[in-house]
Amino acid sequence: MINRPNPNEVFPNPNLPRLCFIKNVVKNPRIIIGDYTYYDDVDGADQFEKHVTHFYDFIGDGAIIGTNSVVAKDIPPYAIAVGNPCQVIRKRFDDELIELLLKLRWWDKSIEEIESLMPILSCGDLKKVKMEIKARI
Questions:
Q1: How open is the CA angle 121-104-49, to the nearest 5 degrees?
Q2: What sign for the dihedral angle of Cα 92, 93, 99, 103?
Q3: Which residue, among 71, 69, 89, 70, has the nearest Cα to 79 in the 3D structure?
Q4: Could you count the other beta carbons within 10 Å of the beta carbon of residue 50?
Q5: Does the structure show a pLDDT above 60 at 79?
Q6: Which helix (H) or strand (E) holds 70?
Q7: Quick one: average pLDDT of 53-81?
Q8: Does pLDDT of 96 surpass 60?
Q9: Fold of 19-91
Q10: 65 and 36 in contact (C-beta within 8 Å)?
């Protein structure tokens, strides 16, 4: 049985105390955070709102925000963004795979479904990953 990160925990990996789920630390209702969106900060990832400047933002599912970034515009799903002002430096995946992952919404699946998806989601052959996800959505 796999152990997926608990989306209700601030720090999903006890071995990485500088990494948190942003959704669990943001209190400002004007900041909309997607699922499984991470923030990494050696000075206290749970202090996201103090360390990151943001204005009525949307941070998409699966996005990663760098330490001390100034988020002044929306960050798309599965993007890696850093800096002042925060800029997307790259996407984690190509557009087609991002679209498929958003439709799949793997984080809403049961543990059993996620276990069955793990060989697919961790496969290095992205063509195969895309084909398998398409068959499941």
A1: 90
A2: negative
A3: 89
A4: 11
A5: yes
A6: strand 70-71
A7: 85
A8: yes
A9: UDP N-Acetylglucosamine Acyltransferase; domain 1 (2.160.10)
A10: no
Domain ranges of the chain: 19-91, 95-136
Q: If you count them, how many residues does the chain have?
A: 137
Measured in whole angstroms, how far is the alpha carbon of residue 72 from the centre of its chain?
18
* pTM for the whole structure: 0.72
Place of tokens 């499941």: 136
**In the structure encoding, which two tokens stand for residue 96, read together?**
């087609």
Distance of alpha carbon 29 from alpha carbon 108, whole angstroms: 22
Instruction: Give φ, ψ of 87 to 5 degrees.
Output: -125, 145
SS (H, E, C) 78-123: CEEEECCCCEEEEECCCHHHHHHHHHHCHHHCCHHHHHHHHHHHCC
Secondary structure letter of residue 15 according to DSSP: T
Distance CA 17, CA 92 (A): 22
Torsion of CA 95, 101, 104, 108, to 10 degrees: -140
The tokens describing 114, both together, are: 């996620």
Q: Cα dist. 13→3, 20, 51, 77, 106 in Å?
A: 10, 8, 21, 21, 19
Give the SS3 label for residue 136: helix
